[in-house]
Specification:
- This protein is mainly β.
- The strands form three sheets. Strands 5, 6, 7, 8, 9, 10, 12, 13, 14, 15, 16, 17 and 18 form a 13-stranded mixed sheet that branches.
Length: about 270
């Protein structure tokens, strides 16, 4: 059935613009112009926002955390299983799933899940260390469009030999991680309902928060970033299944500059 919202165009965290025209149809396109990951500095000429002072990703250094609160992502997220979702190979740059999986309540209103996607290796460093991968759940504030009103929950994926039998691993396996991900410009329907609550353990832990940007062109800023402190163990086979389809798709970390990095707080002063 077609969405009652009609065509909706929004900039995703990957920097890809996704036009959602219905529950079972999505047109995926890159930001205008040619760009890739061989030399991300080449983005600057065609996409001047990439030279901004509030860019993502960053190194999440515990030594520069300015304050720690007791806010919880778990109490702010309201996700539910979704049937019949499709996983896309997005122009050989990424693997992505579109869908209305639920909402994220922030101080200025409700943000709806639009899609999630993956980066391998991870994009955010933690105290200078880069993990195997990173999941980004992209939300957009109700009533917003384009690259406005975006909030992203990031989950770090850590390769471990002992990873087995967790809800998080089952979620990854449902998508084809560890076996086979969709080929270039292809779509695969996920057989069983897909539930972002598989990462409930990570939402219940602490998190880092700062204001940043999309991590690929057009690099628009004023994105609300929330990166879970708990990492998800994944297998080597899962990492390799991504590498078999995609080149490395992570932007190098950017300077924090004058921004604040906080822990377990949904906002920084003046953000909302």
């Amino acid at each position: 059935a077609r969405s009652s919202l009609g065509p909706l165009v929004f900039g995703c965290l990957l920097g890809l613009v996704v036009a959602v025209t219905g529950a079972s149809q999505a047109a995926l396109a890159g930001a205008p112009g040619k760009w890739g990951y061989t030399d991300t500095k080449e983005w600057n000429a065609a996409f001047p926002l990439c030279t901004g002072k509030e860019q993502s990703p960053i190194d999440l250094k515990t030594s520069v955390v300015s304050s720690t609160s007791k806010d919880s992502l778990a109490s702010s997220l309201s996700y539910a299983p979704l049937k019949g979702v499709e996983i896309f190979n997005n122009a050989a740059k990424n693997v992505q799933v579109n869908g209305g999986f639920g909402t994220f309540k922030l101080p200025d209103g409700d943000y709806e899940v639009k899609q999630f996607h993956f980066h391998f290796p991870a994009e955010h460093e933690v105290d200078g260390k880069l993990a195997a991968g990173e999941l980004h759940i992209v939300h957009q504030k109700k009533g917003s469009s384009g690259t406005d009103g975006l909030a992203v929950v990031g989950i770090i994926l850590d390769e471990q030999s002992s990873a087995a039998g967790t809800p998080e691993l089952k979620f990854m396996e449902q998508l084809g991680f560890g076996t086979e991900l969709p080929g270039k410009n292809s779509i695969t329907t996920v057989a069983d309902p897909l539930d972002l609550n598989a990462f409930a353990n990570e939402y219940a832990g602490g998190f880092y928060h700062y204001t940043g940007s999309l991590t690929t062109p057009p690099c628009a800023e004023k994105v609300h970033w929330y990166v879970c402190q708990k990492t998800v163990p994944v297998t080597k086979a899962m990492v390799n299944s991504f590498k078999a389809r995609f080149p490395e798709n992570n932007r190098p970390v950017q300077p924090l500059n004058t921004r604040q990095l906080v822990a377990s707080s949904l906002s920084v002063p003046g953000e909302f």
